[in-house]
Amino acid sequence: MPAVTAPFERMDAGAPKPASADAILVVDDIVKRFETPDGVLTALDHVSLGVAPGEFVGVIGPSGCGKSTLFNVIGGLLDGYEGTVKVAGERVRGPHASIGMIFQEESTFPWRNVIDNVAFPLEIAGRPKAERYERARHFVKLVGLDGFERRYPAELSGGMRQRVSMARTLAAQPKILLMDEPFAALDEQTRLLLGDKVLQIQQQLKQTTLLITHNITEAVQLSDRILVMTYRPGKVKRIVDIKLPRPRSSEIVSSEAFGRYVAQIWNDLREEASRGLLDEESHKLREGEKR
Amino acid sequence: MAETGRLSLPASRPLRLPLRPVTALRIAIIVAVVVVWEAVSASGLLYRDVVPSLVAIGKALYVTLSDPTFYFHLYTTFYEIGIAMVIGGLSGLAVGILLGGSKFLSRAYEAYLYYLGPCPKIIFFPIMIMWFGVGPGSKVAMGAISCFFPVALNVAGGMREIDKVLIRVGKSFRANTWQMVTKIYLPAMRHPVINGVRLGLGVALIGTLLAETKLSNRGIGFLVIQAYSIFNMPQMYALLIILFVIAIGANTVIGRLGGLDDIKRF
Amino acid sequence: MSAAVATLAKNRYFPAALGLVSFVVFIALVELLIRVGVINRFIVPMPSDIIAAFPRVIVEEHVLQRFLLTAGEAFSASILVTIFGVAGGVLLYRYHLLRLATETWVAAVAAAPLVLMYPLYLVIFGRSALTIVMMGFTAGLAPVILKTLEGLSATRRVLINVGKSFNLTPSQQFWKILFPAALPTIFVGLRLGLIFALINIVGVEFLINFGGLGQLINELAERYDLPGTYAAICFVILVSICVFILMERLERWLRPVD
After folding, report:
1. Domain locations in chain B?
2. A258 is in which domain, residue-wise?
3. How many cross-chain Cβ pairs, A to B, lie less than 8 Å apart?
4. Could you read off the pLDDT of B42-73 as tens digits, one per residue?
5. What CATH architecture does domain B62-257 belong to?
6. Distance from CA of B196 to the nearest CA of A (A)
7. Per-residue pLDDT tens digits for C38-80
8. What is the predicted pLDDT for the residue at B260?
9. Which residue among A117, A152, A173 closes a domain?
10. Same-domain pairing of A112 and A126
11. What is the arrangement of strands in the sheet containing A39-51, beginning at the earlier edge strand?
12. 3-state class percentages of chain A: helix first, strand second, coil last, to nearest 5
């Protein structure tokens, strides 16, 4: 079996990698390939990472780097890969009760109101009605939507709907929260403020979180550690420890240290992103010529 | 200023019509149609009773609605359509879910439904008579095969249009198959399903009524043809009016039931 | 063995081939059941007899003339429906008050079984092809108006604004932006209108025993010519399929990529 590709030089050479004994989520040497009409695509090429309890880890990379594939693999929605994913020592083979997923797209059920949306996982798990609604109300309040329980998603803004999705996933009280670009559809200012909310909640619940994103500001704002990925085939290019103080708020975006982290990560990313852009353009060109 | 009853507008306020413009236009159109109708009726322009006076139609309506045998025929048609919709609708739903859920099955069989659907089902009527007899059976069969196709096609399309992320949400919470169908697939598809049912009702009505006019001794279709055969035109118009009102009403009710608000109030 | 099946299943023509094969198998099964006596041969004629009846029906019953007659009726009705339906939809789109007043009425008409008015049309237009064309026209009109209206109304605001930013005249705005954007929906409406028109056309031909293919089926049925009736039905199905495939090709030609 090939050796695990070690990450390149680290930002802070002295900081130790969390030992596997501490990590609650262990992703070990994942290789995922896809068969497409154009041949075999390697989305993930020996990717490993570990997340300690209560940690907030960000995974950042250009479009096409396999981030969403990683998200689906860890969440158990994809199989047919090499390597293992373990949660609290248990091997993940499909959607797991300890893993909660928040998706990038609009995912609230339009035909259910807010409280029914949030109570959904508890309904599936067969919890009694009274307990469902009490827990759901608690999480609706947690995300700051109390008063909106009976409203329908169509009556809410995009940011509010994402909060509903968040409350729904949190209501299942997963050990690990997986987020795939949850704020992609929102404007920058709403993002920053929602980022605050997420930090608040994460700190309150001590929720172990893995955030997948392409937005550098967001990653630096929220994470304890950031994994920078290469363009396809996706590998971990660098691990950056974010040594910004906790508890944080969105005011941190104006600090110098913040700016330096963002600049440094962009340095790594820019190269990968350019490769991705070129690759995609030539692909579209070839597709159009076929017609 | 002296009080003059209810009307005490200050001079500066412009005088406004008591009606919204839309309602006014509708009334104007109806009035115009009535006037033209009566004019044509009285003038004798068209052959005899083809355009009977509205008074005559009104009388015929009254007579029909107070005739107990009419309700027997109405019930027959209702019953035939009802059973046809249940058979055609449920089988359409099942087939639609199967085709929509499996790309493979869809590529193998959906084309048959797609191209057989627009074909006028009346051509199958002689076969239906042979298989199900001259009674209600053949009428129900006509209604059922008419309504099967729009429902199946709309459901299949609806399954494919479900926002994929909603299915992933269900899977990420480990919902079992029954929960997926009842809590995610069906609610997510409600618009296409309701539209399929409305279309199905429309074609089932046509199929069943045509069958009744061709070969039957009961039902609304039969009554219409009977009125025509004795050239009782006002009666025929009365029956058509009642039929259309019921058909439109049923269509609206189904639409409302599905939460679609496109048939607006008068 | 299962590996071979797996690779076969991945072949892109496999599903379509499977569909065709299962259809043929079904027909063969029916043939077998009739020969064995499980299915009554006086209710369902043998598929082999039906196929044998094809040439006879085509030649003796002048299928080509009948087809041309029905097709001609359908074509005339389609032209009328397209012109008046699309024009009607455009009219309602242009005059908002009119739309608010009458849209629900048009939707109601689309839901009513207008086919039952055929005795009236018989009296007005006589026992002729004109009656049938008018019945087809009446039935197909409402869906086309509604879908045209829907298509025009659903044009994305941003596209309209692009037109305005280029200072297009109202006529240019309509023909270069609104109409092309609405075309897919209009085609859905035309397809629906044609379906309803055809149902009425063939239906009325069948009922009043006049005209083309609808009448043919009625006649053959009244003569108890079972294989002939089934053959004629197959023929009508084939014709219907061809008409709608043609319609799709037309739409594909007008709008290449979607």
Report:
1. 21-51, 62-257
2. 25-98+175-290
3. 48
4. 877 766 677 888 888 899 999 999 988 899 99
5. Orthogonal Bundle (1.10)
6. 19
7. 777 777 888 888 888 888 888 887 888 888 888 889 899 999 9
8. 53
9. A173
10. yes
11. A39-51, A25-36, A82-87, A90-91
12. 40, 20, 40
